[in-house]
């Protein structure tokens, strides 16, 4: 085994492939490629991150892997095939072991495993049997990819080699499937949340006036990695004072001043699954009266959001409803007045001056996970809940965020319920 995390039962990936295969048209074949390893310069590379789709369907967490799913293949052994980079003694010495055919079966539940050198020959015979081919492009609503992926090069080649087939899109199927989590997935996300909790508890006794943001980052990475995480699920935001008003502040290079609050948007990953947490805590262990007032208003918005993160609601309706909640809280804080609301532009309501991002996004294998926004919320979808008010004129911002599982009925389940959140809990632990 070459991963830090404990092996995930192959039954999860068997189940995921079955769900995917059921959505394909008859006589269809689907292909998934691993991510590239991205070069930096000279012989340096970025640490490998597996493409989440091939991971979701196979559990294979290494480069240069290809998965083929062909439910109607005439020969049963051709219905699911993994192609892997051939391992040998030289590779084992220089890079560490790669999956052999037996380990690949134990990981994925796929019996037919070939080395990549056999791909062209085997794939050609499968293509002559298939009518439809499902290819995979990133269709996430936030995607902004400028890099050519291994998947892109593959799509170009296959369309050139087999121009007469009927090509279809895998991504809409995966967006739906991946947005509803299996119990095993919820357990992995919960573990990521628990590791994040350990990091936050460690910080509450560590943070003091004059500490640097990067020192806080170092405490977290220490705690995450020693709990079998690869590290942060996304680039950490450790934003003291006015830095909190930069939504994606990732420099983390300022000193934390007495009297300021620090906005920490940080989460551990575990087994490629994300957690996503935000807390806003006082550098000196005590909130000022004004900081406390804004903090409690944001906390109230978060509780209001819980009542709306329920089965049957949808993302658009939920965000519209939350706009009314923010408006009411900002009026009470005196940050906007009745005239601002009466004269507001419906496309950019008055509250957006102080709360300019969404309240929730899908979370899972990606921090901003797959999910079709027009679909209703259903049981076992996982969402963040992250209201915030950002007040540059007062030199601080507050965001509070936990991760929730939609339930069949009633309020969602908070996977971060054990992480200190109230003013009292945070002040007690810091003092």
TrEMBL record:
Catalyzed reactions: Release of any N-terminal amino acid, including proline, that is linked to proline, even from a dipeptide or tripeptide
Cofactor(s) needed by this chain: Mn(2+)
Listed Pfam families: AMP_N (PF05195), Peptidase_M24 (PF00557)
Record keyword Metal-binding present: yes
First-tier enzyme category under EC: hydrolase
Keyword Amino-acid biosynthesis tagged: no
Gene3D superfamilies given in the database record: Creatinase/methionine aminopeptidase superfamily, Creatinase/prolidase N-terminal domain
Key words of the record: Aminopeptidase, Hydrolase, Manganese, Metal-binding, Protease
Family: Belongs to the peptidase M24B family.
Protein name in the entry: Xaa-Pro aminopeptidase
Organism expressing this protein natively: Epilithonimonas xixisoli
């Amino acid at each position: 085994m070459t991963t830090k995390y404990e092996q995930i039962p192959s039954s999860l990936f068997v189940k995921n492939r079955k769900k995917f295969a059921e959505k394909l048209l008859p006589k269809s074949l689907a292909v998934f490629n691993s991510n590239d390893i991205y070069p930096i310069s000279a012989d340096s590379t970025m640490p490998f991150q597996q493409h989440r789709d091939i991971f979701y369907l196979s559990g294979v967490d290494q480069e240069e892997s290809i998965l083929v799913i062909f439910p109607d293949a005439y020969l049963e052994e051709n219905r699911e095939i993994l192609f892997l980079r051939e391992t040998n003694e030289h590779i084992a010495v220089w890079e560490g072991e790669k999956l052999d055919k037996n380990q690949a079966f134990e990981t994925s539940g796929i019996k037919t495993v070939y080395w990549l050198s056999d791909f062209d020959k085997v794939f050609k015979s499968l293509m002559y049997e298939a009518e439809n081919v499902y290819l995979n492009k990133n269709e996430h609503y936030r995607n902004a990819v400028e890099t050519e992926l291994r998947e892109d090069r593959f799509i170009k080649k296959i369309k050139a080699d087999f121009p007469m087939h009927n090509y279809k899109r895998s991504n809409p199927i995966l967006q739906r499937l991946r947005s509803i989590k299996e119990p095993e997935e919820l357990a992995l996300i919960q573990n990521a949340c628990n590791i994040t909790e350990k990091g936050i508890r460690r910080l509450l006794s560590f943070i003091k006036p004059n500490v640097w943001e990067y020192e806080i980052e170092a405490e977290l990475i220490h705690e995450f990695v020693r709990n079998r995480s690869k590290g942060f699920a996304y680039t950490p935001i450790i934003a003291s004072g006015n830095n909190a008003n930069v939504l994606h502040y990732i420099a983390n290079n300022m000193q934390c001043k007495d009297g300021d609050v620090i906005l920490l948007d940080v989460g551990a990953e575990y087994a490629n699954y994300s957690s996503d947490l935000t807390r806003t805590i006082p550098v000196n262990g005590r909130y000022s009266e004004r900081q406390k007032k804004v903090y409690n208003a944001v906390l109230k918005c978060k509780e209001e959001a819980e009542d709306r993160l329920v089965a049957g609601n949808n993302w658009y309706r939920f965000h519209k409803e939350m706009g009314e909640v923010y408006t009411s809280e900002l009026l009470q804080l005196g940050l906007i007045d009745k005239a601002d609301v009466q004269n507001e532009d419906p496309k950019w309501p008055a509250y957006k001056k102080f709360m300019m991002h969404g309240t929730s996004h899908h979370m899972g294998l990606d921090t901003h996970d797959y999910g079709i926004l027009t679909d209703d919320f259903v049981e076992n979808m996982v969402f963040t809940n992250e209201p915030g008010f950002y007040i540059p004129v007062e030199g601080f911002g507050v965001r509070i965020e936990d991760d929730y599982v939609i339930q069949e009925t009633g309020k969602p389940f908070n996977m971060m319920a054990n992480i200190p959140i109230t003013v009292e809990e945070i002040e007690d632990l810091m003092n």
